[in-house]
Each structure stands twice: as structure tokens, then as C-alpha cells.
Amino acid sequence: MGRPERLGAAPPWQERLGRRLLPATRFEYFDAVFEPPDTAAAARLLDEHGQAPGEYTLVCPGGAGYIVDGMAPIPLLAAAGTDAGASSVLVVDAGTHSLPADWIALPRMPNGVLMGLVQQARLNVVNGGGLLVQALA
After folding, report:
1. CA-CA distance, 103 to 95, in Å (whole number)?
2. How far apart are CA 113 and CA 125, in angstroms?
3. Which H or E element spans position 106?
């Protein structure tokens, strides 16, 4: 496996330093490790909520207890509004946060089901979770 394409950007300083200090070191780049998308289970979940593939925005705020600088992402997203042109907004693991009336709360779910929802969403709104950001790539 070769070097990943960096779109014109130099490797991060840590990688450059490592290559300089240990020139014989071979770097391996791996694909993200996820369960394959469970599109059948995702389709069943969408059907339970009257949604169709490609017609919803999926919001993954980082878990019900995720707080940064005293702020939870769900109230911020709700206050900002999410006009994505989709028919519905589905929120994964909203916990006890209040959602706008037309948003749909989804429970935590197996990774494969989540990847199926991610794959079929019109828009994914994530809160910087490393694994989910990789899955979107």
C-alpha cells in the first residue's frame, strides 16, 4: 500500500519527524475498520419511522452525554436549525435532550445499522467523532 493522497498538503510534522528519525521505518495505512453497512436493518428502521433512503438528515451528536465547554451539541443544532432540504431529521442517541417536534430520536444501535443509515442519508451532521468522520470518507 502506498502513501495516501494528501491533496497537496505535506504530511503532519509527527510523520515527517518519524521518517527523519527512523528512515528505515515503513508506514502502513489501513482502511477504517467498520462492520459492513447493514442496509436491511437500516431499511427496517427507516420504515418504522416512515422514512425513505436519501430523504433524511442523520444527526450523530457524539452520544447523549457529550458536552464540550459546557455545551451539548443537540440544543445548539436545534437552536441553529437544520434546514437540509430533507424530509426529516433523525438524531442518534439524543439522551434526555429535547428535540424539535419534527425531529425523530433514534436509540443507540449496532455499528452496521448506523453505517447503513450513514450510507443512505441525504446529509450527515456529525460532531467530530473520529470513527464516524472516517466512515463518511
Report:
1. 14
2. 17
3. strand 103-106
